[in-house]
């Protein structure tokens, strides 16, 4: 069986080419196998361990030296390996059946070779076993602060390893490190608070620490033992990255000797997939804890990292929850009173709980407002110009302001750090928080400015000669802004830019036309109110004449008023534009017939009526549906068929046909409803109306002049008129079925809006969602993931999503646009047929848009 499947056959396979590499520490032995043949080995004296000379090991089957039971154990452990960089361990096993010696064994797979390492088992003294895992974790969980948590971690690690000094060593973003906690035996001094430059643990070493979480150097003075042979015939080498016995770089050995260290041990602390830091352990003489104790220590390191990650996540969540509350208060306050943006002191007070600052500057429409420790107005004006060149419309921060603004240092400006939050398009407006200079002394473990020296072969890393604390006075820097504070600033940016953009854009447009529009709007409002009042008054008078009791009068009057209200909703939904006749019939049938609305059959092309014609038709068809439900085919088990077509004169001809109901006869008296049916369209629109009381069913024909009608191209279709809600639920089920298990890209620059849309999409069945606030992040997401669908907010701050749309079209990924503005830009970019979702996002609107998309794209 192949190694790649992690099931290794240790019997009767052909011998592979010899491999090599490197050296090991002399407290155990290492052998490398290809199939079951030894191809490399390293040990001071293999006879000491398995009774065979080193030179006799190579090119022979493992079965010549290991017992069958041991080989069986090794095979089982190899079969359990899943994934790269996994090391399996066996404790206290004999290498041969007739041997009483016990060994601790580690094995892993390296480039299709099996690496087996073993060392004699050490017997722990009675009572020397470490505390239980539960006890260790309980002590960590009781720590109230992060400092106490680090300190307790160092104490527990020292108790497990027995080393003289155990440090919790934390990396910063540059790779430099700081000792944030320490546990030591008395009398050896302290490294707590010391900083070390990134070159002390270079990038390649940090990469290896991320793969191999545990590293022991048992004796700094021990001579390493070479692995032989050194190279295979093809020049390949044996990768010992995951070896527990792997020897050490001479430079690192010299580094430790210069510190006076006799043995060292390191346990990686990996948080969220990144190397957060190390447990760095020093002993001032040789020390080799037992294999079991080392394995327990490694497990403790992983559990410490897990607890640390949980704490950091919880703190970040609490911090950002508090920040969202601040953002919500900002949104509410500024929306109610835009003048608050001119008050920087109010902003400082509002933001100080999430982003502490010593001063603040606000720049809006070329005007500056400053408070606290901040530059002068002249300096702030110059700073805004610099930010417009450097910040690229994003949150920008620095703890050393003179790096982007040298004049600040020359002017003896008290500010040393800033975070700039853009709150508008170009030219950008800003909210800038300032922090003053933090004068501090950093204690380095040696001079951090001289990590590299020139040797005979050019520049190379040289071991530190002295580890006495080297102090450096830091000037011109502020307390840096943390990643959590930057995330909060981005949340505030999104909040403020929404408010400011809306206020600025809408206010400027309204201000120009306010005086002209005011009189026109008042006159138009007065005209419409009078017409509505007159219409309602007429409905009351005409309805009253046909009923002898109040309940019937109220019911009929209410129905007619509701018909007008539904018609008004239809035509105002699209800003007083033409509305579809089909929607009118749906609304009337659903309101009066409920589930029986399916008994109305419609046939015709999609037709739109102007607002005037739509209101008139609403009253007519309301009366037709009402009369049919009371006296005609809909009161029994019959049906109604409504059809329309464009006649030779270009007018709309509508036919109403009832069938399957009780026999029909002409009424003896003409009521108000019949008057509306006969005369509304001729009187209000200049059209025609004809009614016939046939025994098999009532019939009516109407002609609406072409100037009130828009008839879309396409063949006439015949469908039952379903209840509007049933139609939407049917669409919802179809959309959910299409979304099930699919991945969706959502491009939306407002986090809160994006989260709402994400909830809707997940509720509709989407399995995977990726959110991107801009073009760059969307393009990166598309490089890494295949998406089945995309929703694109058209306007993304200073850019738009059209480049993303073109990329998706080239990839043949279906998508829909979303916008709170007009559709003109989309229609001019070659996406005339693409569905457009009007914001804000709602579940019904998204269902309708996705249903429309499905009609033009197949899965």
Please give a structural write-up:
The protein is an alpha+beta fold and 859 residues long. It has five domains: 118 residues, Beta-Lactamase (2-Layer Sandwich), CATH 3.30.450.20; 140 residues, Beta-Lactamase (2-Layer Sandwich), CATH 3.30.450.40; 133 residues, PHY domain (Beta-Lactamase, 2-Layer Sandwich), CATH 3.30.450; 176 residues, Histidine kinase-like ATPase, C-terminal domain (Heat Shock Protein 90), CATH 3.30.565; 129 residues, Rossmann fold, CATH 3.40.50.2300. The chain is 38% helix and 24% strand. The strands form ten sheets. The protein has a six-stranded antiparallel beta sheet. The chain has a six-stranded mixed beta sheet with strand order 28-29-27-26-24-31, with helices on one face. Helix 13 packs parallel to helix 14 and helix 14 runs antiparallel to helix 15. The longest helix has 62 residues. The chain starts with 22 loop residues before the first strand and ends in a 5-residue tail after the last helix.
């Amino acid at each position: 069986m192949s190694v790649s499947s992690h099931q290794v056959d240790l019997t009767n396979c052909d011998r592979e080419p010899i491999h090599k590499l490197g050296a090991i520490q002399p407290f155990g032995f290492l052998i490398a196998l290809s199939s079951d043949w030894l191809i490399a080995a390293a040990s001071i004296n293999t006879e000491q361990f398995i009774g065979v000379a080193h030179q006799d090991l190579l090119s022979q089957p493992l079965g010549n030296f290991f017992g069958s039971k041991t080989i069986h154990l090794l095979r089982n452990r190899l079969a359990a390996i899943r994934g790269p960089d996994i090391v399996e361990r066996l404790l206290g096993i004999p290498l041969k059946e007739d041997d009483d010696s016990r060994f601790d064994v580690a094995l892993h797979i390296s480039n299709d070779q099996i690496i087996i390492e073993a060392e004699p088992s050490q017997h722990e003294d009675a009572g020397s076993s470490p505390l239980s895992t539960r006890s260790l974790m309980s002590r960590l969980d009781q720590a109230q602060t992060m400092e106490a948590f680090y300190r307790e971690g160092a104490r527990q690690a020292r108790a497990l390893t027995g080393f003289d000094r155990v440090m919790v060593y934390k990396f910063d973003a540059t790779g430099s490190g700081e000792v944030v906690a320490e546990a030591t035996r008395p009398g050896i001094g302290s490294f707590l608070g010391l900083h070390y430059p990134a070159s002390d643990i270079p990038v390649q070493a940090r990469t290896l620490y991320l793969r191999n979480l545990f590293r022991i150097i048992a004796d700094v003075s021990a001579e390493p033992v070479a692995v032989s042979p050194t190279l295979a015939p093809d020049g390949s080498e044996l990768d010992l990255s995951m070896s527990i016995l792997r020897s050490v770089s001479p430079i690192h050995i010299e580094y430790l000797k210069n510190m006076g260290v006799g043995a060292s041990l390191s346990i990686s602390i990996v948080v969220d997939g990144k190397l957060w830091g190390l447990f760095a352990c020093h002993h001032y003489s040789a020390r080799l804890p037992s294999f079991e104790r080392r394995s327990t220590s490694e497990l403790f390191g992983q559990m410490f990292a897990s607890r640390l990650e949980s704490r950091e996540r919880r703190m970040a969540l609490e911090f950002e929850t508090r920040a969202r509350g601040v953002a919500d208060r900002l949104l509410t306050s500024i929306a109610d009173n835009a003048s608050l943006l001119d008050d920087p002191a109010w902003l400082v007070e509002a933001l100080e709980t999430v982003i502490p600052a010593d001063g603040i500057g606000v720049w809006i429409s070329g005007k500056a407002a400053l408070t606290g420790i901040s530059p002068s107005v002249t300096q702030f004006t110059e700073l805004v110009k610099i930010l417009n060149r450097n910040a690229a419309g994003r949150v920008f921060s620095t703890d050393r302001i003179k790096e982007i603004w040298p004049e600040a240092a020359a002017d003896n400006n008290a500010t040393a750090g800033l975070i700039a939050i853009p709150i508008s398009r170009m030219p950008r407006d800003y909210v800038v928080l300032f922090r003053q200079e933090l004068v501090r002394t950093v204690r380095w473990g040696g001079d951090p400015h001289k990590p590299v020296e020139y040797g005979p072969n050019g520049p190379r890393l040289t071991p530190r000669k002295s580890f006495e604390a080297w102090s450096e006075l830091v000037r011109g820097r502020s307390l840096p802004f943390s990643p959590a504070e930057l995330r909060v600033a981005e949340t505030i940016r999104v909040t403020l830019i929404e408010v400011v953009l809306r206020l600025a854009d809408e206010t400027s447009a309204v201000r120009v036309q306010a005086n002209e529009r005011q009189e026109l709007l008042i006159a138009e409002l007065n005209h419409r109110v009078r017409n509505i009042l007159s219409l309602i008054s007429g409905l009351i008078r005409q309805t009253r004449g046909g009923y002898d009791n109040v309940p019937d009068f109220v019911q009929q009057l209410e129905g007619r008023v509701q018909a007008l209200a539904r018609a008004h909703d239809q035509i105002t939904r699209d800003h007083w534009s033409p509305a579809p006749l089909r929607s009118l019939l749906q609304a009337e049938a659903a309101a009066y017939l409920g589930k029986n609305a399916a008994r109305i059959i419609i046939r015709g092309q999609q037709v739109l009526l102007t607002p005037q014609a739509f209101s008139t038709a609403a009253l007519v068809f309301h009366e037709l549906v009402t009369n049919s439900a009371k006296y005609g085919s809909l009161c029994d088990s019959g049906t109604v068929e409504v059809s329309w077509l464009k006649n030779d004169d270009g007018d709309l001809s509508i036919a109403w046909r009832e069938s399957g109901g009780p026999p029909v006869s002409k009424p003896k008296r003409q009521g108000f409803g019949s008057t509306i049916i006969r005369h509304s369209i001729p009187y209000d629109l200049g059209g025609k109306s004809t009614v016939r009381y046939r025994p098999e069913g009532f019939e009516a024909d109407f002609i609406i002049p072409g100037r009130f009608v828009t008839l879309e191209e396409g063949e006439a279709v015949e469908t039952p008129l379903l209840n509007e809600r049933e139609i939407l639920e049917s669409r919802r089920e179809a959309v959910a079925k299409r979304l099930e298990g699919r991945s969706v890209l959502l491009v939306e620059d407002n986090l809160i809006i994006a989260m709402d849309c994400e909830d809707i999409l997940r509720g509709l069945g989407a399995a995977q969602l990726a959110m991107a606030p801009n073009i760059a992040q969307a393009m990166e997401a598309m490089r890494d993931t295949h998406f089945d669908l995309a929703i694109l907010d058209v306007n993304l701050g200073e850019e738009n999503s059209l480049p993303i749309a073109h990329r998706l079209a080239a990839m043949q990924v279906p998508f829909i646009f979303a916008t709170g503005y007009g559709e003109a830009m989309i229609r001019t970019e070659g996406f005339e047929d693409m569905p457009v979702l009007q914001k804000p996002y709602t579940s019904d609107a998204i269902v309708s848009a996705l249903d429309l998309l499905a009609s033009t794209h197949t899965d």
